[in-house]
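Minutes, project check-in
Item: structure for the 154-residue chain
Input as provided by the requester:
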Amino acid sequence: MENIWIIHNSKYGNSEKLSNDIAAKLKDKFNVKVGSIKTLNPEEIARDNPVALIIGARIIAFNTERKIAKFIKKLSAYFEKPIPKIATFYTHTLSWTEKFSRGMNKALEKSTCIGNVCPELLEVRMQSPKGPAAEDQDEKVQKYIKKLIEFFEE
């Protein structure tokens, strides 16, 4: 089975829970590993030679958190060629606007380890910073996972 990594920088557990939920749905088709950038070494990801990387980020102060972008920059040093498939998801407590993902988009554009980025992104609104997800978010997550599988298998 091909390797996929899901990375996050969860503060209250929302991105971590969503990472694990996505991993559980992908595990029948892929070898999926989940890790927090707080404890994960970029070299560990590179050793696995993943075919895909899913990046989970929190929206803080109307923008993608900076620590995840810094981790992506560090990750580039460990890859000779780009990771073929990249996907993103976000957790937030506000009304979604595309400008929230600008920081992540810039980080992905600058990174040399980023291959083809999935045009679909997932944004999950939380009831509060400490969660849980708003009631109407589950269907959105399920649709995203189906799109991810299609994207990874093309």
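Outcome recorded: The beta strands are 3-8, 31-36, 52-60, 63-64, 83-92, 114-125.
No further action items on this chain.
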